[in-house]
């Protein structure tokens, strides 16, 4: 009958195989206790490095459905159960194995798939999960920014076109004062009452009645002007003719009697 403590150890190993992101089988022959402690420190808190017994470990891998790992369980074995990033754990194991050749990496399982030591070395060459996520996020942000710029370009063009149209309309619009006065003028024209037809018909009679009055006013104005004109008798007397300088004696005209008599023209002969 199995011992209870061994049953507990197998159950714990089985649970670790099932719940871990990766499990890496190693051989620690020749490593000191201090070196194993340093390796655990390098792996961090997300990886549990456990020295195991091969018999119990084989039972555990069978119970976890990973029977392919049984052939790797030979010699002094220790298993790194990775709960965090498998790439970071593979890097730590690879770097420590380079510094301490006694550590031998046999293989393992990553995300339920069996991997060899060479494949684990390739995984160690990959970038960590955080770096990959950062790159993916950066690429996604760049794509989103580019898409946003493409979507905003038509909107910006429409906005610029609307602004140009608004400026053109503002330049062609009449001044505010003229626009304000135009409705007032229209309102005055609309509100102005139309003249009564009877008053329009009676207008000629009013004109005929006003004509004699205008003539009387003109007669009165003429009389008033005549009364206000100065009297002719009050005008200054003309200067006496005798006081004027005597005129120079003009040469006497030649007497016509002294002119030579015209010679009698001979009478034509009548034959």
Task: Characterize the structure shown.
Among the domains are: 123 residues, Alpha-Beta Plaits, CATH 3.30.70; 50 residues. α1 packs across α3 and α4 crosses α5. The C terminus is likely disordered. It is α+β, with helices and mostly antiparallel strands and 271 residues long. The chain is elongated and about 105 Å long. The chain is built from 8 helices and 5 strands, in the order αβαβαβαββαααα. The chain starts with a helix and ends in a 43-residue tail after the last helix. It has a 5-stranded antiparallel beta sheet. A hairpin with a 2-residue loop joins β4 and β5.
Strand content range: 5-15%
Measured as a percent range, the helix fraction is 55-70%
The overall pLDDT average reads 73
User: What is the element string, with H for helices and E for strands?
Assistant: HEHEHEHEEHHHH
Give the count of helical stretches: 8
Strands of the biggest beta sheet: in what spatial order? 2-3-1-4-5
How does the major sheet shape up? 5 strands, antiparallel
Say what the CATH topology of the domain at 4-126 is: Alpha-Beta Plaits
Structural class: alpha+beta
Text of the CATH class of the domain at 4-126: Alpha Beta
Uncertain spans: 196-209, 228-271
CATH superfamily of the domain at 4-126: Ribosomal protein L10, N-terminal RNA-binding domain
Oligomerization state: single chain
Gyration radius (Cα, Å) is 69 Å
First CA to last CA: what distance? 216 Å
The CATH architecture of the domain at 4-126: 2-Layer Sandwich
Record field, number of beta strands: 5
What characteristic shape results from the CA principal axes? elongated
């Amino acid at each position: 009958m199995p011992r209870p403590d061994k049953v507990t150890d197998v159950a714990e190993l089985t649970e670790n195989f099932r719940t871990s992101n990766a499990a890496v089988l190693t051989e620690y022959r020749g490593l000191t206790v201090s070196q194993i402690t340093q390796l655990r420190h390098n792996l961090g808190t997300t990886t549990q490095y456990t020295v195991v017994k091969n018999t119990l470990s084989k039972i555990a891998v069978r119970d976890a459905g990973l029977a392919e790992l049984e052939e790797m369980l030979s010699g002094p074995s220790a298993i790194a159960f990775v709960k965090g990033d498998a790439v970071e754990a593979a890097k730590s194991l690879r770097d420590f194995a380079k510094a301490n050749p006694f550590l031998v990496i046999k293989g393992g399982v990553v995300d339920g798939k069996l991997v060899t030591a060479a494949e684990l070395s390739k995984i160690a060459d990959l970038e960590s999960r955080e770096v990959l996520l950062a790159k993916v996020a950066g690429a996604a942000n760049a794509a989103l920014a580019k898409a946003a710029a493409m979507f905003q370009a038509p909107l910006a063009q429409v906005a610029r076109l609307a602004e140009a149209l608004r400026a053109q309309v503002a330049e062609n619009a009449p001044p505010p004062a003229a626009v304000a006065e135009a409705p007032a003028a229209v309102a005055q024209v609309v509100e102005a009452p139309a003249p009564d037809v009877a008053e329009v018909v009676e207008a000629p009679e009013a004109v005929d009645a006003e004509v004699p009055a205008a003539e009387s006013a003109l007669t009165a104005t003429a009389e008033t002007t005549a009364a206000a004109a100065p009297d002719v008798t009050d005008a200054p007397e003309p200067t006496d003719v005798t006081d004027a300088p005597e005129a120079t004696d003009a040469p006497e005209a030649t007497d016509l009697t002294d002119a030579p008599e015209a010679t009698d023209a001979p009478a034509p002969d009548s034959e």
